Amino acid sequence: MKFLRNFLDGLHPHFSKGGKFAKLYPLYEAADTFLFSPGHVTEGHTHVRDGLDQKRLMITAGVSLGPCVLMALYNTGYQANLAMAEMSITQAPGWRGLAMQFAGMDYDSQNLLSNLFHGLLYFAPIFLVCNIVGGLWEVLFSTIRGHEINEGFLVTGLLFPLTLPATIPLWQVALGISFGVVIGKEVFGGTGKNFLNPALTARAFVFFAYPAQMSGDAIWTAVDGFSGATPLGLVAAEGMDALTATVTWNQAFVGQIQGSMGETSTLACLFGAAFLLYTGVGSWRIMLAVLIGAVLTSSLLYVVGSETNPMFQMDPAWHLVLGGFAFGLIFMATDPVSASMTETGKWFYGFLIGFMVILIRVINPAFPEGMMLSILFGNVFAPVIDYVVIRANIKRRRLRNG
Description:
The protein is an all-alpha fold. It folds into 3 domains: 1-37, no CATH class; 56-219, no CATH class; 249-402, no CATH class. It has helices spanning 2-15, 25-35, 54-64, 66-86, 94-102, 112-145, 152-162, 170-182, 198-209, 211-214, 231-238, 240-244, 249-254, 266-279, 284-304, 316-319, 325-332, 343-363, 371-400. Helix 3 packs antiparallel against helix 14 (266-279) and helix 6 crosses helix 7 (152-162). It is flat.
């Protein structure tokens, strides 16, 4: 590593002010701080609470997503292999079939390595396009503004692919991440100044711009010609009996169901939640408040019931393990930039999201997922919630002090 450190130090004068590549300094700085800790540290008396900087924060968030990434690979390959067996397909088409053949992999859904490798062939291109295109936007804006490239995109570049179906066209991935980075973040000043979650902003753009590729009953399994609705879509169309006849609660909890690549496994999300809570990066108040809001609202609607809307038949236990509920609760709602920042406000913010997601799912089954819209709705109201909480605190102190 000393050789690499010396090599980067030798390049530094060329990218510093006055060097011939000075305009590309953000790109050099990004590579330097990615490989090594920053060399500039605060001296003297400071108000730093701990050793957690933005780089460590984003690395921690990225590590917490590891279980979801592994489950995305496994379940995407598992669902594809199951569908191929059902349709009597012996080899995947195109370059993926050649890659499987070159690796000596079969299409056995009971083979862990086969499922992981087959899933990787779908996840990797989406991940690469997302990070290359989004990274280019980050470099462009950093170069124009003359500041360093923020590490915040590393998490966005991992979150967004996990919210997508395996069959989405790559050009739509590029458009989606471009919208999320530019419109959802950079126009407000970059990382730390955006009021919407960039990954969810990107997904919302793709969802509403290209609904045929983001919803429906034929897109969630990566095999042409195979139809299979997501569990929430199945309930909205045919009721709970149709769901329980095909999927068990345990399967939904583990994640062996159709859906967006990284959102199906509540179990994987819980591993990520444990890591975020242990490191202090994730807010337990927001997580608990979202959970309370969803459980109370779904319980109320379940008791009320409906003869015409089958979504009223879904009890709270099913709501917690279907769709992107767990993924959104743990990784999206707790975004430290777009969420409420006051301790009291976090309770109201989280409860609002939990209430809204069930309301959208049940009352409007045209959007059977709901988590994306509810979190963006919470993002919009987070500044208002914090403002009200702060004003209330000021008023209370004035009254207490006479």
